[in-house]
Write a structure and sequence with these properties.
This protein is an alpha+beta fold. The protein has five helices and six strands, in the order E-H-H-E-E-E-E-H-H-E-H.
Length: about 150
C-alpha cells in the first residue's frame, strides 16, 4: 500500500468538529499507556488506580477510556466539541491525525481526510513535526502492546 508523501508538509488545523473524539468503524477505544495514566492521574489529582476505576475500562488486557452507551460513542471528556482535558490528553489524541496507521494513501484519502475537516486547512505541518508525531505514536503503541498499561503489570 502506498504511503502518503509528507516531505513538503501537510496542511492541518483542528476545526474543533469533535469527529476524532467519536467512535466510528474500527476506531473506538482511546488506549492508555503508563505515561497517559500518569498524566491523567496528575491532572485529576488522583492515584492512578482511582483514575482507572473511575474513567477506564479494560478490553483484552488493555486499558482504555471508558465507553459509555449514553454518550453515543463520544469521548467522556468531550463537551460542546471541546476536549475538557486537553492539556493532559493521551498520546493517541495528541498525535491525531498523524498516526502511522493513517499514513497510507487509501486510509488517508478515504477516511481521515473525509472525516477530519482540519485536513488541508491552516498552515503546513512540517515533515519534521509529522515525523515527531509518528515516532510518539509508534512509541506509545509499543508501550501499550508491551503491557505497560496492563493492570496485571
Amino acid at each position: 500500500m502506498s504511503k502518503i508523501n509528507y516531505k513538503n508538509g501537510i496542511k492541518f488545523k483542528c476545526q474543533s468538529s469533535g469527529n476524532c473524539c467519536i467512535s466510528r468503524g474500527s476506531y473506538g477505544f482511546v488506549y492508555l499507556s503508563k505515561n497517559d495514566l500518569t498524566r491523567f492521574a496528575k491532572h485529576f489529582n488522583l492515584p492512578i488506580e482511582h483514575f482507572k476505576k473511575k474513567y477506564c475500562q479494560t478490553t483484552d488486557g488493555y486499558i482504555h477510556l471508558a465507553e459509555k452507551n449514553s454518550l453515543n460513542g463520544k469521548c467522556l471528556f468531550l463537551k460542546n466539541y471541546k476536549c475538557t482535558v486537553y492539556e493532559s490528553r493521551p498520546s493517541q489524541c495528541r498525535t491525531w491525525p498523524f498516526w502511522n496507521e493513517n499514513m497510507n494513501a487509501k486510509t488517508w484519502n478515504e477516511d481521515i481526510s473525509v472525516n477530519c475537516p482540519g485536513i488541508g486547512k491552516g498552515k503546513k505541518i512540517s515533515s519534521k513535526l509529522i515525523k515527531k508525531y509518528l515516532k510518539e505514536d509508534y512509541d506509545n503503541e509499543i508501550s501499550i502492546l508491551n503491557g505497560y498499561a496492563n493492570p496485571e503489570t
